[in-house]
Each structure stands twice: as C-alpha cells, then as structure tokens.
Amino acid sequence: MRSCIHCGCTDSMACVTEFGPCRWVRTDPPECSACVEAFAVADRLEAAAADLAGGDGALCPASPEGRPAPHAPLYALGGCYCARCKEPLAA
Questions:
Q1: SS3 sequence, the chain?
Q2: CA–CA separation, 27 vs 19, rounded Å?
C-alpha cells in the first residue's frame, strides 16, 4: 500500500482538506495533494518574505518556525536593530 512520503496518508486514510480528501499528485515517490499544496504555500511565503527583506533573502533567524519573515527593524539612539533577533541592521 502506498503512503505519502510527507504525512503518511494512504488510499484508505486520505488527508481531509477544505476542498475534500486529498488525491495522489505523484506516485513515485508518493505525494498527496495536501502536502504538495502546503509546500507550495510555504515556498510562496518564503519568497514574499525575501521580497519584503529587500530581495536579498535576509530573513530573521528568530522568525516563528515555518513562517519565514524579514527582520523587524527597531530604530533607537544607538542605531537600528532587529526587534526579534537583536541583530544590528543598516539604517
């Protein structure tokens, strides 16, 4: 019996999504539509975050897991730094 390499769903135990049960998108290796869509959304979020960071891919290492985000600039008398990771930033 095949099972999704990411979530482990099978023909008899499909993922339930807002659009109904998942379907097979790839069979070798087996990947279900729910996982493929989740990875596509994550890729789009990462690309959008990189755009917000100036396109250079400078994402904050203290971003919530699974939700890449640019640095959060905080301006103070001593300069500019990220409010999340405290890394100094160019003003």
A1: CCECCCCCCECCCCCEECCEECCEEEECCEEEHHHHHHHHHHHHHHHHHHHHCCCCCCECCCCCCCCCCECCEEEECCEEEECCCCCEECC
A2: 21
pLDDT tens digit sequence for 36-71:
888 888 777 777 766 665 545 577 888 877 677 777
Number of neighbouring beta carbons within 10 Å of residue 68: 20
Quick one: how far is CA 85 from the chain centroid? 19
User: What is the value of pTM for the model shown?
Assistant: 0.53
Q: Which amino acid is at 24?
A: W
